[in-house]
Every structure is written in structure tokens, then in C-alpha cells.
Fold each of these.
Amino acid sequence: MYLHIHCFVFFNFRMEAPGEKTHTCGTICLKYLLFLFNILFWLAGGAVLAVGVWTLVVKSDYISLLNSSFYSASAYILIAAGVVVIVTGIIGCCATLKEMKSLLIVYLSLLLCIFLLELIAGVLAFITYQELDEELRQNLKVTMQQKYQQPGEESVTQAVDKLQQEFKCCGSHNYSDWTDSVWIQTNDQLVPDSCCKTPTDLCGLRDHPSNIYRVEGGCIVKLEEFLLSQLYILGAVGIGIAFLQLVGMMFTCCLYRNLEEDPY
């Protein structure tokens, strides 16, 4: 009984001072919860920004192997989304601390817009991945055969070598894809040196299983797995931020209603 009375008094207690706004403790608690949410939202924006930069900088070598701009575009979208989330979080903090109802409406609208854009982006990403996967299967072999070690195609050569070494594979579908390579036909090697388990100069003269990688499905399977893992990362980040946004919209609506009801 005592605890019930104590809680009732606590949540309905009003701190009054001449010339100051008076709020119930419920409104004050909402303000701090929304402020805490904005801190988390701001950190989430930083995480999205970091993932976008990491995707663009660390894994950008493979962009030259894709005719589609999906990979680089997704990285730029992540960077832009991170900046928007950070700015939205700052607006939310200002609206919460200064109790500006008009700014709260702007903040709520931004949260809703970002949430809807995330849903649209998720659907488009899934559809685009299916198209990218088919395009990858059709074009990777031709790209490796016609552009590897050719003048002006240094980025492709670097990407192919990194792909074969990092994923421990050789050729698009298997090592025999290199037989029709423009570069191989003008050299004595059977495969590039990057196909070797222990890369050394001219190690590609031998295509014995003890010397080169013979992964089932070749590099195409490995690259597909990599792109799919990137999609999972984007999806996980998006779901996490979407959940935060739903919580933030709920807190914002409650705070706005309480500010409307609280006497000044």
C-alpha cells in the first residue's frame, strides 16, 4: 500500500518554480528516455557511416569486376544514410532538451521517412542482388579472360589477383577457364601466379592440385558468398536501426502528448 502511494506521488509530483515550466515526472522521464534514444540513434548513424566507408575503402577492389554499380552505390547510400541519421539524432536532441513541439514534429517526420526508405531500400536490395548474381555469373569469366594483365586494365588485374589469393580459388568456374585467357595464350604459364597456394614468380607454370587452388565452383561461388555476406550486414544494420526508430517514434509521440497536456 505504501509503495503504491509512493509511486503515485512520484509520477504526479510537479516541480514548480516562478517563471519555469512545470512537468510531471512522467514527462521528465520521457525526456530523458528520448534523449538516451537519440544518443543511441546517433551512435547507430556513426556505425552505418563506418560500415559504408569500410565497404567502399577496404573491399572496393572487387568493384572493377562488376559491370553493375550496385556495390559502390550501396556503399555511398550507407554513407549518406549514416550522415542523415546523425543529423536527425542531433535534431532530436535539440527538440527534446528545448521542448520544442514544432521541432518534435519535424523529428518524428524524419524518423518516419527514414523508416519507409529503409523498407523500400531493403526490397530493392533483395531484387537487385538477384539480378547482380545472374550478371556476375555471365560476365566474370569474360572479364577475367579478356582484361587480365591487359593495358589499361590494372584495376581488374589487381582485383583478380586479390580475389584468387583472398578466397583461395582459381578461375571463374574452375582453373581451366584460364586456357582461353588472352594473357595466358601469349605466355608460357597455365594459370596466373595468384592461383598458386604459395605465390612465387612463374609458379603458374604448373596446374597440379598440389600447386594451385581447385575450389569447387571456382571464384564465382566465393564472390557470391562475399556479396551475400555484405547484404546480410546491410540487412542487420537496417533492422537494428529500424527497431530503434520504432522505439524513438513511440517516445516522441508520448512526449509530444505530455507536453500538450502539461500546464505551464
Note: The CA atoms of residues 116 and 242 lie 9 Å apart.
Amino acid sequence: MTTRSYFLAGFLAAAGALAFAYYLQYAQGLDPCPLCIFQRIAMAGVGLFCLIGFAHGPGVGGRRIYSALAALSAVLGAAIAARHVWLMHLPADQVPACGPGLDYLVDVMPLAEVLSTVLRGDASCAEVKGAFLGISLPAWTGIYFLMLAFGALAGIFGRFTRGRA
């Protein structure tokens, strides 16, 4: 496999996941909670680093750097998804109260405080809005992030040729 085709596959996987998320939002009416939006940002990070790797077509050192950045984005996304799943499984009396929307938080708080507030979660994040085969969408997203992370690890430790895709 060439370096470019490897990064193209990673980009298409991330872009496909984001396209599905937007399909669920705009065609199916599943509005994302703040943690869902953060997961989308992490998925966009995976896609961006893979797209840059595809465009650059780097040698071994560059491939490892882009793969490590994609892996970091995927691991962060998996951690956010795990937090989301944890909130969904809290007893009702332990779920944090609903807070203001993400747009409002960004307008009135410093970025570090926005991150802290969103990662604490609230009742909108604890609600199961969609599931497939009895598994919530954030759990599926976490699984997908882990698959992307393992794929990125292949980019760090694997052997590739430096040809065209």
C-alpha cells in the first residue's frame, strides 16, 4: 500500500463518519448535544491530518507524524465518546442539570471554561437520542474512533511505499 492511499482511506473514513452525522442531524432531525459536537471536531481532526498526509505524500518521518496526529485526534474522540456513554448510563438523579447551549457558552466564557463545562456534560448529553442494534450512537462513535486509532498506529509502525494513490 502506498502512503497516499493509506491517508486517502483515513480521510474517506473520517469524512464518511461526518457525512453520516450530518445526515442524522439534517435528514433525521437528531440534534447534536455539545459532546456530539466535540466528537465531530475530533473526527474532523482525524480527517484533516489524513487529508494533509494524502496531499503531501510524505516519506517515513512525515507519515509517522501525520499518523500520530490522526491517532491523537482519534484517541481524544474516543475519550469524549466514552465520557458521553458514561453520562448516558448514570442514574437519573445523578445526571447533571441542563446547561446553556454551546453557542452561548462560546460567547460568554473563555475557551478553557467552555471545554470544562462541556466535558462535564449535562442532561442533553445523557439522553439516548439514537441507537443501532441496541448500542447508542456515541458508543458506535467510540468504537469507530478506536478503529481509526488502530489504523493510525499502522501508519506509525507499518511499511508503505512512497508512490501515487
Note: The chain has one domain: 3-157.
Amino acid sequence: MINTIRVYNDIGTSVLCVHNTIQLFHHFFPCANVFKISSSEIKTNKWIESTDLLVIPGGEDLPYLDKLQIDGIELIKSFVFNGGKFLGICAGAYFSSSYIKFFLTSQLVIEGERYLKFYEGNAIGPVYDGYQPNSESGAHIVKIMYKNTYAYVYYNGGCYFDDNNNKVEGTHFALYEDGKKCGYTRRYGKGKILITGFHFEFDEQCCSHLLSKLSYDDFESRRENLVRYIFSLLSDC
């Protein structure tokens, strides 16, 4: 059961991503308690026993690293290992991987090791052209392939997952239309991890400016089916 959800909210998180993530849980888990949590609160470890799911939403990965640091990261790992659930979306997926390569331009690359290592491979992005920090100029509606079907979702700067020729534990459950891996889940100790390079928390109202070739109903019905599938994977523990 997922009764108490905490959504990371600190320097680097996108206001829109945090808001939409909280709204998503209010819609799909109407009886759950949903709270924001800061880096300083995570470092206290007082949240662990009262939390079922921790979410690291979209934003910018480097400030997450700077604010949480090793002590916060180790508490997150302990939380999941001892039975907690973890969801990382877009920047949260970069942050959850072992190594990232993020190409802002051909001359400007954010690259380096990360320390959660829930996904023991590389998170590489952006997958689609046009990304600009704090801008909608590179936002797209993209097609996600999963479980012999597909959905449309919001995308802005997210990653794909590269196993780097390693035998990685867990399951890649979703692909971008070009075949790159973009949804990953695994068990970690007694807990469960799920990360995505795309945003599934943005509904049709948030995406209305990008839906010129899609009907609202087609976008939303397919997105909601994907969301239900994602939550079924996350709850399977």
C-alpha cells in the first residue's frame, strides 16, 4: 500500500514538475497523504518510518547533488533497501543513475558520476533536439512504447538508459519511438525503484499547447493507461 508520499522540493526542482507530480498522486491515490520534502528534511531521517514512496521530480540534477550530498543520498538508499519505494522522473532519473552525460550544446556537457546508482548504467540526454534550461522551447509530445501498446507523454530534456555493456539488474519496461530505453524498474533490497526519462505526470491541460496533431481524449486516455501500468510496477513489491 502507498499511503504516504513525499515529493522532493528544493533548489533545482521545477515548480511545474512538483505541482503536476502532486496533482498526479491526488488523482490516482486520492486517499494518500502527499507532502513536499526538502533536502534538510531528508537529512534528518525523521521521514523514513512514515513514508511509503519518495519521489524525485523533474528539474536540474546538479543542484540535487549539491543539496542532498552523500549523507542525504545514503539515507535515501537505506530507505529503499529497507522496504521503501522510489520514483525518479526526468532529472530524478539522471540523479538515480550511476553516470550521466547531458549535452547542453556540443561544447557544453554535464558529465559525471552519480551516487544513488539505483540504475547501474548511463543516463544520456537530451534525446530530442531543442532543449533550453527553464524553457518550453525544447518541449515535445513523444510516443512511448510499452507492453505491446503505446502512449503519448510530455518530454523536455529527459534521458535514455544505456546499460554500457553491463548486465544490469531490473527491467527496461518502456522505449522511446526510436527504440532507446526510457523506463526502468528494479527491486533494491526489500524496496522498489522506478525511473523514467519522460514526464508522465503532465495531463492534457498542461500539454494543450503541444497537442496540435492529437485529440485531447486520445492523449489523456493513453497517458492514464500508462500511468496505471507504471504504478502497478511500482506497487509490485
Note: Helices lie at 15-28, 39-44, 61-81, 91-96, 216-235.
